[in-house]
Amino acid sequence: MQKIRVLSDILASQVAAGEVVERPASVVKELVENSIDAGAGEIRVDIDQGGVALIRVTDDGCGMSREDAMLSLERHATSKLRTVGDLAEIRTLGFRGEAVPSIASVSRFRMVTRERDAVAGTELVVEGGKLRDVREAGCAPGTVIEARSLFFNMPARRKFLRAESTESAHIEHQLRLHALAAPGVRFRLRRDDREVFDLPPAARAVERVRQLVGTQLAQELIPLPRVLGNGVSVEGFVLPSAHARKGRRHQCVFLNGRPVEDVVISRGLTEGFRGAVAEGLHPAAWLWIELEPSLVDVNVHPAKREVRFHRPVEVREVIAESVREGLRESQTAATPVASAPKFSPPVFQASVAVTREVPFTAPAPLNVLTRQEQTMIDDLLASAQTEESSLAADESVVPAVGYATERFRLLGLLQRRFVLMESDDGLVLFDPKAARERIIYEGMLQHRESGVPVQHLLVPVLLDLDPRDMDLILRERSSLASAGIEIEEFGGNTVQVRSLPEGLGVGDSLGFVRELLDELLHGPVQGGKFAFERLAKLLARRASLLVSPSLEEARHLLDELFRCELPYCAADGRPTMIEFGMRELERRFGARG
Fold first, then answer.
1. What's the CA gap between 202 and 179, in Å, rounded?
2. 280 in helix, strand or coil?
3. 206-333: in CATH 3.40.50.1860
4. How many Å apart are CA 91 and CA 395, to the nearest integer?
5. Fold of 436-544
6. In the structure, what pLDDT confidence band is assigned to residue 138 with cuts at 50, 70 and 90?
7. What is the pLDDT of residues 188-244, one digit of tens each?
8. What is the 3-state secondary structure (H, E, C) of 42-67?
């Protein structure tokens, strides 16, 4: 009995659609790429119900004849490849001839197209991969493609689609990328008969960036000079290091006009910012890379999101050099004025008081010293003895009050970071930041049912978000409100934050909120529900970073800390204090009673 069979055309198209058409945004991507390849000067996208009910892409490109329109429904039929050699010299966005038949196989499909010099156009109607009708039609030059009831014949795939707002956000993000890749094209997006944006053609890439990021961020853009090297040219814009974030969603990279994602490019950006961006953060950037088509393979991913460079090291070095040169020119152009310059990467010059910094790691159990802790103890005991003798007569060094009075006596500060205290058993290192984290965390948990006290901001904080981030934030608005963070829509992809939990001691509300949302959206635990405990831990940790350790602060913190249920650890389990017993210290120093 024969076991191997050739798939039917419809089934083969549906299998291909599983790779090409992942979600409604994939349909928009493929159709918009075809419109750009057709030389369109204006592209309009209409969607209903997140693209599931309707996706319509209208362009004023070259259009197709009746014969070409019929052939476009055949798998692997394309106007962009002729010979095997063309595959190594791809200069178009589409080239495989799979998009249109794949989309038609999983939707109720309609195409209306007309060439510029033709008297009449052609209309084709396809349902689930089966051609239903072909006829002449009156239409403007160009092409209109509609895909209705997406995945109507694949319920398993349709079941895994996300909420309408989420799918709409992905479509908007995809269209914004193409608007950046082709700034000379007008892009319009309408969602459920409401216009989301209308981007007029831009003469220069910087104008398109300004259209999308807004006036405030546009003022901080740092232009990157065009750098050439071995068939590679790079130019674009970056934002100052203060705008670096955990995720890479704010990095828009275009290779020969194609939006791409690649770790080589991200590493080049990071190397260019070396010394100015903290580890784990990624700078915001818009890069346009021109590369000889023979030096890159764009056919390594079904959705063409990823590419493979033949000489990745050279690409990375050219990107890094462009970024470094742009930052140098930005610093040179900055004039010393009273206000802060637009960009000033930090210069790491330690002051005399902090020339030697003791590394700190998670502690071992009490009375068991690690090598790092031993080094730390050797240094701090000598300074502590000197400081104790000089502070003994100083009335400013007084015992902590309350429970702490019975156990600890404050001695001084270590590197302006940890508080040195004496206990009945020996030496104690106290971490004020970890203590503040525990206090805020337990305070929020106590008000979980009754409602967290809030502090309304005098001036609401406005944040421009990625459409996908915007969707998630709005869906979790009630969870954020339960933790004291009130968020409202402000128009477009902008939200306003009207309040924060009381008692955080936040000075820079904008910076605090931006970093908080960045951690929520792109931290180790991304997406999903914003559980109250997760929010409480994150708020407590962020607020604790604002603490400036001092002896006066330590006294109050100790009293508050010992009113907590778990005073010896922070919200994430880090210790708030470490005690080194006298026996262990005497053994280490070889002291004899």
1. 10
2. coil
3. no
4. 77
5. Ribosomal Protein S8; Chain: A, domain 1 (3.30.1370)
6. very high
7. 999 999 999 999 999 999 999 999 988 888 899 999 999 888 889 999 999 998 888
8. EEEEEEEHHHCCEEEEEECCCCCCHH
